[in-house]
């Protein structure tokens, strides 16, 4: 299981408030009904292979993105940084993997495009030269990697003037 979303974003750049906690995890099909019942949850997609689960834990919405056997997510879990917390260690997605997750989400869901754009800009600005661009190029289509490079180089004024690069 790997922490993603705004909670992970706060590890790499300025934290922002969110209404949920995002996780990526491999969830066996037989565990889905038990998780949904235990945490008053709902599933997106068929019950034997849901794409996401929304669970409730201690008043928080927990979105679990079910990853299956995707080689990218295996790599993401291997690269995750382990952070000690009062509740034990937790694996946190790297800045590069957060950028990849944002772009994967934007392929099908652009409802929060401006927030995703702000998150990507924050990661690009604070990650700067430390970002591993070869990792991004390995897992992103060339157009999406190019989008990030161009987004990195734009000023806020240029974005406000509509000079944002086209994303797919």
Index terms:
168 residues, alpha+beta, 5-stranded mixed beta sheet, two-stranded antiparallel ribbon, 7 strands, 18% strand
Write the layout of secondary structure elements.
Layout: E1 2-4, H1 5-12, E2 20-25, H2 32-38, E3 42-44, E4 52-57, E5 60-66, H3 71-79, E6 81-83, E7 90-92, H4 95-106, H5 113-127, H6 133-139, H7 142-153, H8 156-160
Parallel strand pairs: 2-5
Antiparallel strand pairs: 1-2, 3-4, 4-5, 6-7
Helix pairs in contact: 1-4, 4-5, 4-6
Word description of this protein:
This protein is of the alpha+beta class and 168 residues long. The chain has one domain. Helix content is 45%, strand content 18%. A hairpin with a 2-residue loop joins strand 4 and strand 5.
Radius of gyration: 17 Å
Summed up, the helix count is: 8
- Elements, N to C (H/E): EHEHEEEHEEHHHHH
Q: Structural class of the secondary elements?
A: alpha+beta
Q: What percentage of amino acids are in beta strands?
A: 15-25%
- Average pLDDT, to the nearest integer? 90
List low-pLDDT spans: none
First-residue to last-residue Cα separation: 29 Å
Largest sheet: 5 strands, mixed
Widest sheet, order of strands: 1-2-5-4-3
Shape summary: globular
């Amino acid at each position: 299981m790997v922490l993603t979303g705004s909670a992970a974003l706060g590890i790499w750049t300025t934290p922002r408030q969110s209404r949920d906690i995002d996780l990526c995890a491999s969830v066996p099909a037989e565990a889905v009904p038990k998780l949904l019942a235990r945490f008053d949850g709902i599933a997106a997609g068929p019950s034997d292979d849901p794409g996401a689960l929304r669970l409730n834990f201690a008043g928080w919405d927990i979105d679990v993105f079910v990853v299956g056997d995707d080689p990218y997510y295996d790599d993401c879990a291997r690269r995750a940084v382990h952070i000690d917390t009062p509740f034990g260690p937790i694996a946190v997605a790297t800045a590069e993997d957060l950028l990849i997750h944002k772009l994967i989400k934007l392929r099908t869901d652009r409802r929060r495009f401006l927030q995703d754009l702000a998150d990507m800009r924050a990661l690009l600005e604070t990650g700067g030269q430390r970002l591993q661009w070869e990792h991004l190029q390995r897992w992103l289509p060339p157009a999406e990697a190019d989008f990030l490079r161009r987004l990195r180089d734009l000023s806020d004024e240029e974005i406000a003037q509509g000079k944002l690069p086209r994303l797919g």
